[in-house]
Amino acid sequence: MASAPAQSARHSVLWLVTPLGLLAAFGLPLAVRLPAASDEWLLQHPQAGPAFLSAGIPGVLNVLAIFSVFAALVALAGFAAGFTRRPWALGFIRKCLIVVAAWVFVFLYAVLAATGVISDRSVLIDDAPVDTVRLFYWRWDLCWPAAMVFLWAVGLYIYSWRRHVIEIFRPPPPEPVLGDQVVENLRTHGKDPRYRRSLLQSFGYHIAIIILLPWLLQLSGCVEPYRVPKGSGNPVVALVKIVKPKPKEKKKKYLVNPNSPISFYIPQLDDSDVQQKVDEMTQLTYVANASRVVGKMGAGGGKKGGWPDGMDKAVVRFIRLEYSGRGWDDGMDSLTRADVNFLTAFRRMTGFKVAAQGESHPISSLKKYPKGFAPPFVYITGDGSINVAESDVKILRDYLQDGGMLFADCGSPQWHTAFRSFIGRVLPGNPLLTIADDDPIFQAPFTFANGAPPLWHHGGRRALGVKYKNRWVVFYHPGDINDAWKTGHSGLDPRLADGAIEMGVNIVYYSFTHYLELTRKYRK
Description:
Blueprint: H1 4-44, H2 48-55, H3 57-82, H4 87-120, E1 124-125, E2 128-129, H5 132-159, H6 163-169, H7 178-188, H8 193-220, E3 240-242, H9 273-283, E4 286-288, E5 319-322, H10 338-350, E6 359-362, E7 377-382, H11 390-401, E8 405-410, H12 413-426, E9 433-434, E10 464-467, E11 472-477, H13 481-485, H14 494-518
Parallel strand pairs: 5-6, 7-8, 8-11
Antiparallel strand pairs: 1-2, 3-4, 9-10, 10-11
Helix pairs in contact: 1-3, 3-4, 4-5
């Protein structure tokens, strides 16, 4: 049986070198794969390639890859050296820890340089610019593991200077050793307790602000409560006139001989299906005059606009849902600006203050909003599959049943199929229904005599919805209304694009009004 001193020495060696072995085991495969991973990322985001090349980022990444492999091999050598217990081994282990700490600085420099180029040159990532908030969390996700490695290396370096560790490898010096002095000063606050205490407090505050606070915010999914404009308004903002074609008399057909197989009748354009399609488009031409405003949008019968149950200093926000699937962020980029264009038009039509940018949240964020201050509606679109975890499905179900509304916008026939399946999971037993043309959702603030403008028909010609307790909790537009909001309207006639904006305003009005009525008790 090994003696107690021998077991203690073995434990001390394991405490010292095992982290080096773990770093080598996990770090070496990652270091070897780093060049391929960076190339793969550039293939997925080709917009960043020219900016990286001109700023010399590929060279920085190559240096990082080489140094990463070197640091992992050094850590492996330090792990092996610890078990020799030779006099030189302890000094070698300390040098290995210094190399690991140096690697952290090289890694942080590479991350800051690459992300800085993306931010400074306004490179679009996933068709959207990287704002300061996204940049911060991006850097945080990349840097916090490296920062933990650095703190671990510093702690082990101090540990290697403690007397009981030195004794394992060689006779310790007679005078007090550095590691014991540092540990003792931390424990007793040193010779000057006031100075030592203030130093530790300052260090603790910096760690809390720089590391712990962002981590907690990210963990909790901190959200800003949604506020609906307070006031008193009128549901009628403008009257919309439907221009319908006049019925045309059919032209007579003249035959030389009724029994002759030869007809001298020349078909007219009015007799073809082309004219029928033109007539359908004419029926969907909305002539709206923004000057014909009857008060401002809201409820309560006033003329200043807003809702009696609203909140002061409110800003109307447009929030879309993030999920695993193609096209969820379509229109959020700085070129097409669908979300921003809608908010701008909403401000022009209603006079309410609006957010400067659209927002996107994961579905899980919906449960973070205080009761009565959740978004009255959230928007979802896409053009592929919809991959959502069951936990998020429940969160969305609870949000809808508690007063929220899902504004769904079909971006492709594939998404139409995916959405029908998805909403069946969210609200089982509540099928998608055709919304009647005379439904209140089509009557205020703008009147749509023929229902929602169908636009591109990805999911049919009629708007669908899901009702829960006599309220539409899902409004499903089948024709990619988001495309009509984009800069240039995706080639759509501007008059139909105006109708698409007005349909969005109706959704906002409907969701705001019903949400405030259902959640009034939470704001008392």
